[in-house]
Amino acid sequence: MMKNRGSGKISTKWIPFFCISFFFMGMLFTNRLWEPPESDNKLISSHQRNEELKVICEDCGTKKKPREDKDVMDEVQKTHDSIKSLDKSISMLQMELAASRSSNELIHPRESVGVTTQNGKPKKKAFVVIGVNTAFSSRRRRDSVRETWMPQGEKLRKLEKDKGIVIRFMIGHSATSNSILDRAIDSEEAQHNDFLRLEHIEGYHELSAKTKIFFTTAVAKWDADFYVKVDDDVHLNLGVFASTLAHYRSKPRVYIGCMKSGPVLAEKNVKYHEPEFWKFGEEGNKYFRHATGQIYAISKDLATYISINQPILHKFANEDVSLGSWFIGLDVEHIDERSMCCGTPPDCEWKAQAGNVCVASFDWSCSGICQSVEKMKFVHEKCGEGDEGIWGVSL
């Protein structure tokens, strides 16, 4: 036995064991590598699908034409531009329609019944509607206006009927329904019948909104050639004013006032601060040209434009800036009428003596007549056109 081990030959008793081991190893190796014919078909199909998708994707990449994409984007842009142009055309057509109706009324006054208010009643025809901006606390200011340049009672009705000049104090309501402030205005209205009540909550920082609502309300109530806003601490000569407006009656879109371009005030806690100063460029820039807020006039189609678009017209901090911004981009003629921004005596007095009676007088330092309650009568005596000035004007 020792000899057999030393010779390196395998003993015959191990042969069956090795045979069985090799048999099982062969079976195991065969099972791992061999798959039935169905599996081959699936692998081939999967491989074919992957190749087809690869070809399709490569085909998409090679057949995609940049020019076709550019053409599509060009068409989208053209459609967008057409929509914008259509919106602008609709607004302009609405204004022109309103102007055409008014022109037709001048030629065929008996046919003016087609122009109606929201409740179906015919609009009252007028030459100009003047809204005197006032507040709850300004009763004495209103009285000073009534005692000077604004006719009262039957004279006010006669002015409206004979000359087409409508004058109303415009005011909204308080934040509290039926408050003592509202009741005081109701009592004053019963006495003088010279108010235009607005659907507006009064507040100093709401003047831009009040201006929009005034024009919208006035356009709905009167069909006038001009619409005017004036503050209740400004002196007005109605006859000269009416004659001045009549010069521009044939122009379709006019914006008349004392034009200015003041600085944009970025500093907080200063009067006339503009929170949106950054929209006007670098610090130190000026506003675009616009009429000072003490008094200005706009023609009918501009007032109609405000009425139609008032929900989307932006309000800046200052009311006169807001109004000027609404006309940027429109075909509007700005009329710088210097007679609408005379100073108080001696300025307006000297001009009156020279035959150049002012339309409006106020103090720039006060943005109105300083201490207007006490001074309004003095200005009227020195710079007024006379109590009969308006009645001799032919419109």
Automatic annotation (TrEMBL):
Gene3D superfamilies: 3.90.550.50. It is a single-pass type II membrane protein. It is an enzyme of class 2 (transferase). One of its GO terms (molecular function) is beta-1,3-galactosyltransferase activity. Residues 11-103 form the DUF4094 domain. It is found in: Golgi apparatus membrane. GO terms for cellular component: Golgi membrane. It holds the Pfam family Galactosyl_T. Keywords: Glycosyltransferase, Golgi apparatus, Manganese, Membrane, Signal-anchor, Transferase, Transmembrane, Transmembrane helix. InterPro entries: DUF4094 (IPR025298), Glyco_trans_31 (IPR002659). Its cofactor is Mn(2+). Its EC number is 2.4.1.-. Pathway: Protein modification; protein glycosylation. Coiled coil: none annotated. It comes from the Eukaryota. The chain crosses the membrane at residues 12-34. PANTHER family: BETA-1,3-GALACTOSYLTRANSFERASE 7, BETA-1,3-N-ACETYLGLUCOSAMINYLTRANSFERASE. Belongs to the glycosyltransferase 31 family. This is Hexosyltransferase. It comes from Chenopodium quinoa (Quinoa).
